[in-house]
Structures are given as structure tokens and as C-alpha cells.
Amino acid sequence: MDRRSILLAEEDEASADLIGIAFKEAGAENPVDVVANEEATTAYLDRKIREGSVSLPVLIILGLRIADDFAVLGWIKTQPELVGIPVFVFSGEVADYDGRAREVGASYYAAKPMGYGELAVLVRDVTNRWLTKQS
């Protein structure tokens, strides 16, 4: 398993904590680095790009609240060093952003789960799909 970090861009601290717990329970050994907004997300990734490929995250999770947040996803997909990193998009919006997220470059899209049980299942799927298959 690749031990590089998971970048979680989530402005709600309680949600970020639960997502981190769900990754641990799913067997992911990757540290979860949390940033709270768009500027912090791009600053984190800029710094990781400068540090080199060994420090780039293995997975990027974007918690989207408004459609403008797609700008961060678009920016990620224009960075050659980041193009191969899967980007998982959570949305708390009731509108269906799946098509827009995939159009901009998301690897996976899901509405934010309503409870911890749903979150745990979703995180287990993400862990099995992108983290345990890494070497």
C-alpha cells in the first residue's frame, strides 16, 4: 500500500474528523492531511509539487459546497504533476453535480452521506479502489 498522504479539502471540521476515522477503520494507513478552503488546497498542492513526486498525495478528496468550488478541481487537472492523482468529489448540495464533476476531471463523485454508516461504506470503497491496489 502506498503510504503517501490523502489530501482532504473539507471546511467542516467534524466531517473531516469523521472521514479520517472512516479511513482508519477501512484499513487505510495513509495520513489524512486536511485543508479548509480553496486557497489552502492550492497552496498545499503547490508546496507538494515543489517538494517532488514523493510528497504528492496519493488521493485528493474535495468536499464541494458550491459550484464555484469546481475551479479547484479544474486547477488540479491543469497541473501536469497532479493529473494522475485520483480526485474524489463529495458534494453536500442537493443538485446533481456528478456530470459536472466528471466533466472537470473528477475520478469519482458522490453526494455526502447522511450518516456515518453510509460514509464508512463509501470510504471503504474508495480505499479498496485507490489505496489498497497501490504498491
Quick structural overview:
The chain has 135 residues and is an alpha/beta fold.
Features:
135 residues; alpha/beta; Rossmann fold; five-stranded parallel β-sheet; 5 helices; 17% strand; globular
List the total number of helices: 5
Strand order of the largest sheet: 2-1-3-4-5
> Mean pLDDT score, rounded?
87
Question: Number of domains in the coordinates?
Answer: 1
By CATH, the topology is: Rossmann fold
How large is the share of residues in beta strands? 15-25%
Q: What is the overall shape?
A: globular
Helix/strand order: EHEHEHEHEH
Helical residues, percent:
40-55%
Query: What's the CATH class label?
Result: Alpha Beta
Number of strands: 5
The separation of the N and C termini measures 5 Å
Largest sheet: 5 strands, parallel
Radius of gyration: 14 Å
In CATH terms, the superfamily is Response regulator
CATH architecture: 3-Layer(aba) Sandwich
Query: Poorly predicted ranges (pLDDT <50, ≥5 residues)?
Result: none
If you had to describe this structure to a student in words, what would you say it looks like?
The longest helix is centred in the C-terminal third of the chain and has 16 residues, at 116-131. The chain has one domain: 3-Layer(aba) Sandwich (Rossmann fold), CATH 3.40.50. The N and C termini lie close together (5 Å). Helix 1 (13-25) crosses helix 5 (116-131). It is globular, with a radius of gyration of 14 Å. It has helices at 13-25, 38-51, 70-78, 98-104, 116-131; strands at residues 6-9, 32-35, 59-64, 87-91, 108-111. The chain has a 5-stranded parallel β-sheet, with helices on both faces. With 135 residues, it is an alpha/beta fold. It is built from 5 helices and 5 strands, in the order βαβαβαβαβα.
